[in-house]
Design goal:
CATH architecture: Distorted Sandwich
Number of helices: 2
CATH topology: Beta-galactosidase, Chain A, domain 5
CATH class: Mainly Beta
Strand order of the largest sheet: 11-12-13-14-28-24-23-18-21
Low-confidence stretches: none
Helix content: under 10%
Order of helices and strands: EEEEEHEEEEEEEEEEEEEEEEHEEEEEEE
Radius of gyration: 19 Å
Shape: globular
Number of strands: 28
Structural class: mainly beta
Mean pLDDT: 95
Length: 365
């Protein structure tokens, strides 16, 4: 039976930060019963219920049951990431003749905006509902010098749930000083369900003929290397686990996949196909479309038996996969990479679409 689209807002908890900021939980539901739940802390997607090929709803996003767990999360489950997604080498960059020093929260590098990045702030939220779509507009102003970054950065992120089981994430930002920006959404997916073990049998396609190899600190070397004849060739569907433990230097340094792929797209093309993830036992499929030039494949290598998630589920290594649309890591220090510098008077805009559907075959062609 079909339901009506709806938006629901509730109190989730208060931060123990002196100000006692209230955190809300917002639930978006469409007529196909797909349900997206997120909190205003970090714009964190706490659950994603989508149907399988038989219509059964299950939660396909890893996460926690309590606000306190999210406040102490070291894995960025479900969060909006900024000011700069991924790594910046040695936690520093130069811009306009001045060096800026950032927090080395992944020594010696800066990762995902630092410990006080977008995943740790409470966003203002305005919900909306139209005849066909439901969603929320999140907004936040990061002050000049926040986390070491120059410029007051005004950011909005719009979550939209469509009738065709698409979750659209639209990013926009302006700054009063030149500053690097790179945003992403850091959900961890297991299409069988968040509590169903590893994702090594998931079939993955990535629309990329090149990737950016890294050094031992997981910083890109600057090379754009062909994926041909390597474990990084996902141009045709491959099981994530098929080559993840191959004798390959890049896989050893990442302890699996933790690499940026250079998407085969034109720079100003509308959101185009980036990746497809398929779980054959339940038939769920996720397609990712983006305006971004890259996507980070992370195979959950850092999860371990100490991560206790929703419903007391222990999330172990490779129990999920993240597909992080982005500009390339360390771009402020890599002049050959596409620029991430936002200039005053310009507006940064980016779109990523997560489209869920089902498929009946054991394998995608």
């Amino acid at each position: 039976m079909l339901t009506r689209s709806s938006v629901e807002r509730k109190w989730y908890g208060n931060l123990a930060n002196g100000a006692g900021q209230a955190v809300e939980v917002i639930t978006l539901t469409n007529a196909e019963r797909m349900r997206v739940r997120f909190i205003t802390l970090g714009g964190i997607i706490t659950s994603l219920h989508v149907p399988d090929r038989d219509g059964n709803l299950q939660d396909v996003a890893l996460g926690f049951d309590s606000l306190d767990d999210y406040l102490h999360d070291a894995h960025f489950f479900g969060a909006l990431i900024g000011r700069y997604a991924n790594r910046i080498a040695n936690a520093r960059f130069s811009l306009g003749g001045q060096e800026y020093r950032l927090e080395a929260n992944a020594p010696p590098n800066h990762l995902h905006g630092g410990s006080g990045g977008f995943h740790r702030v409470v966003w203002d939220a305005e919900t909306f509902a139209t005849d066909n779509e439901v969603g929320a507009l999140l907004s936040y102003t990061s002050p000049d010098g926040d986390g070491g970054y120059p410029g007051a950065l005004r950011v909005t992120v719009r979550y939209t749930l469509t009738p065709s089981n698409e979750l659209i994430v639209d990013y926009a930002a302006t700054s009063d000083r030149p500053t690097p920006v790179n945003f992403t959404q850091h959900s961890y997916f297991n299409l069988a369900a968040h509590d169903r073990g590893d994702v090594l049998g998931h079939q993955l396609t990535i629309n990329a003929s090149r990737f950016t190899p890294v050094d031992a600190a997981l910083i890109p070397t600057g090379e754009l290397r062909s994926v041909a004849r390597t474990p990084f060739d996902f141009r045709e569907p491959q099981q994530i686990g098929a080559r993840i433990d191959d004798d390959d230097e890049q896989l050893r340094m990442g302890r699996g996949y933790d690499h940026n792929f250079v998407l085969d797209r034109q720079p100003h093309e509308p959101a185009s196909f980036a990746a497809r993830l398929y779980e054959p036992t339940c038939g769920r499929m996720l397609e990712v479309f983006t305006t971004e030039p890259g996507i980070q494949l992370y195979s959950g290598n850092g999860l371990d038996d100490r991560v206790v998630g929703k419903q007391w589920r222990v999330y172990r290594r490779r129990n999920a996969v993240a597909l992080e649309t982005q500009h390339f890591p360390d771009s402020p220090n890599q002049p050959a990479f596409p620029s991430t510098i936002l200039e005053p008077g310009r507006e940064f805009r980016s779109r990523t679409i997560y489209k869920f559907s089902t498929h009946t075959e054991d394998r995608l062609e």
